[in-house]
Amino acid sequence: MTVRSQRFIVWLFALFLVASLLYKGHCLRAKTGPAVAFLSWSTGRVTVRVKGDVPRSGIYRLPDGSTVGTVTNMTIIDPAFLPAPDVNLQTLLKPGMILDVKQKGLKKYVLSISYMKAKERLILGVPLDLGLMEEDDWEALPGIGPTTAKDIVNYRQDNGGFCSIEELKSVKGISEGKVEKIRGFFMSK
Description:
- This is ComEA-related DNA-binding/uptake protein.
- By secondary structure, this protein is of the alpha+beta class.
- The protein folds into three domains: 30 residues; 76 residues, Roll (Ubiquitin-like (UB roll)), CATH 3.10.20; 58 residues, Orthogonal Bundle (DNA polymerase, domain 1).
- It contains six helices and four strands, in the order αββαββαααα.
- It has a four-stranded mixed β-sheet with strand order 2-1-3-4, covered by helices on one side.
- The longest helix has 22 residues.
- About 9% of the residues have low confidence.
């Protein structure tokens, strides 16, 4: 068999492979329906980040109803772990929580809880919470600039928070269209 015929066979094989992929629709599938902010596997799950003095830090996706104690049992090897007095291990996990564990002496740990910023939550597919958003978080959303972000935060401070995403329409610079554009990024209440 000559080099030319070998190349011809390789090209035929490649053509067959591409044709079969196109036939099955893997390459030409048109996107239909509305844009989805979150993947379907995120339903029934809560995503948290564990960091600090733990052997297994990272991002964890756990079933709804999981507690802070669930995460500490998974990530901290030391069975004598005692959290700070103000941390309840029975606290239910909320999407986007950050559990920061710091070792303070032998067999003593301090656990602090904070929340991921909007950019990290968006990347991980974690729904945003209206009550936790700061100016820089609002700016991470499409169509929200620095001035509008500041107006949103000021409105929330003046009016005691948002009951629903619909309330954003009361903020100067937020239209019905803008609310619809960002609605999919927020958790439903």
